[in-house]
Design goal:
single chain; 72% helix; 447 residues; three-stranded antiparallel sheet; 3 strands; mainly alpha
Length: 447
């Protein structure tokens, strides 16, 4: 054959691949193959399909086996387990730094409090400044179209607000009625505080921060939180008056409801306007005028974490006020234990109902937002209501009313922080599918 001399090119000869004797004896055809090059038919060599296995095999021959040296094997397993636990602890502290810092701040507030003469100034500064920071960041990172689209979803508005006001207050009143069968079991002011906690709207700041961390629909959380706190001054007094007008023995300690409701409206709407709507509007303006720098600051430089620090400041001032008023010292120990466990049970119950009912008809991102809005309760409205609706309450009794909602807030923040891990894992497949669809759309547009 003179194929090398003529100009016509023939297709190259396919290399012959045969299985080696070693491979036939082992029955594993994926480890070794004999490849014969077309130019060198006389010489053949073995190319392993998995070279790392060959290396491991040779290394295992040079080193003593686990059976020959069980001591080293046991020590190596212990060392690997210790490293695994250390890595797990480090990961948890990095991922749940918020929860760790929260515990430290509560411990500090239980030992050192702001002087009583400065409590009002501290509350005003923290409430307005910290909430304003959270909603300014939300306005800078939330697309305007997404925010407006969520305001028009009236069905989900009804779904969330009915659960937040009616479902939570009804279950709380049922538990209070069961506890009230014995007049010596619970302090009446704690029972009244439990009813207050069930009637107040959802919280604002923690909902937004937690939903963002859990990769939920932050825009929906903003809408539901603002709507709930807008309805709160009207619905909370009406619901509490309805539940407290049953004539139960624990309601006899209440004075006549002669409070000025106009004071509630003035305080709440002033706070909503200055610390929520105004910063949110300014953030939207900044985002639309300077989209590039805004994204770089809050996404690349991660300045959005300032919202978590602002939320920690709000929680600290709540517990500082509670410990400073001596509220926890004025309650019997068994009553305090009951409040803690009933708060945990109520949160789990409300969260389960919300998750089960919302999962039937909402996408995962909306389910996460609802799970943070429906079970949550804000002390920002429950605390002032006790002093405005019933004027002339003793300081110790006013502190007792605040205990259930303060304890509940501590658990809802801690549980919400841990749930961010669960929700992120749960929604990850849906996020990956959405990312693949976006890539396909970009590829089609580029073609």
């Amino acid at each position: 054959m003179s194929s090398n001399n003529n100009g016509g090119a023939k297709p190259p000869r396919t290399p012959s691949i045969t299985t080696s004797n070693t491979e036939r004896s082992s029955g594993n055809s994926s480890l070794n193959t004999e490849i014969v090059a077309p130019s060198k038919m006389a010489t053949s060599h073995i190319l392993p399909a998995r070279p790392e296995r060959v290396g491991n095999k040779q290394a295992s021959e040079d080193q003593p086996s686990e059976k020959q040296n069980p001591k080293n094997s046991t020590e190596g397993q212990k060392y690997s387990r210790v490293n695994m636990y250390i890595d797990l602890v480090v990961w948890f502290l990095q991922d749940q730094w918020f929860l760790t810092t929260l515990g430290i701040l509560i411990a500090i507030s239980s030992q050192v409090q702001v002087p009583p003469s400065h409590q009002h100034l501290k509350e005003t500064i923290v409430t307005y400044l910290a909430v304003s920071i959270i909603f300014f960041i939300t306005g800078c990172t939330l697309p305007t179209k997404v925010l407006l689209a969520n305001y028009s979803r009236w069905k989900i508005h009804l779904f969330v607000q009915i659960q937040c006001f009616l479902m939570t207050s009804a279950t709380t009143f049922g538990i209070v009625s069961a506890c009230a069968t014995s007049k010596t079991f619970m302090d009446p002011w704690l029972l009244i505080g439990m009813i207050f906690a069930g009637c107040v709207p959802t919280t604002i700041s923690s909902n937004v921060v937690m939903t963002r961390q859990a990769h939920g629909n932050t825009a929906l959380t903003v809408v539901q939180s603002t709507l709930g706190n807008f309805l709160g001054p009207f619905l909370t007094p009406a619901l509490f008056s309805m539940y407290s007008s049953t004539g139960a023995w624990y309601t006899h300690v209440l004075p006549s409801a002669g409070g000025a409701y106009s004071e509630i409206y003035r305080r709440v709407f002033k706070q909503l306007g200055l610390s929520l709507f105004l910063p949110l509007f300014i953030g939207q303006v900044v985002q639309n005028l300077f989209p590039g720098p805004t994204k770089k600051v809050f996404t690349d430089w991660k300045f959005s974490k300032l919202g978590s620090l602002a939320l920690l400041t709000i929680i600290w001032q709540t517990f500082d006020q509670a410990f400073g008023s001596g509220a926890f010292n004025s309650v019997k120990r068994d009553n305090m234990v009951f409040i803690v466990f009933i708060s945990i049970a109520l949160f789990i119950l409300w969260l389960s109902i919300c998750f089960a009912t919302s999962l039937m008809w909402l996408p995962k991102q909306d389910v996460i937002a609802c799970c943070y809005c429906c079970p949550a309760k804000t002390p920002a409205m429950g605390v002032p209501l006790s002093s405005v609706m019933y004027v002339g309450l003793a300081a110790v009794n006013e502190s007792k009313i605040q205990i259930p909602i303060v304890v509940y807030q501590a658990f809802q923040i801690a549980a919400g922080s841990v749930l961010t891990i669960v929700f992120r894992k749960w929604i990850r497949p849906a996020e990956e599918m959405q990312e693949e669809k976006r890539k396909e759309v970009r590829e089609r547009e580029s073609v």
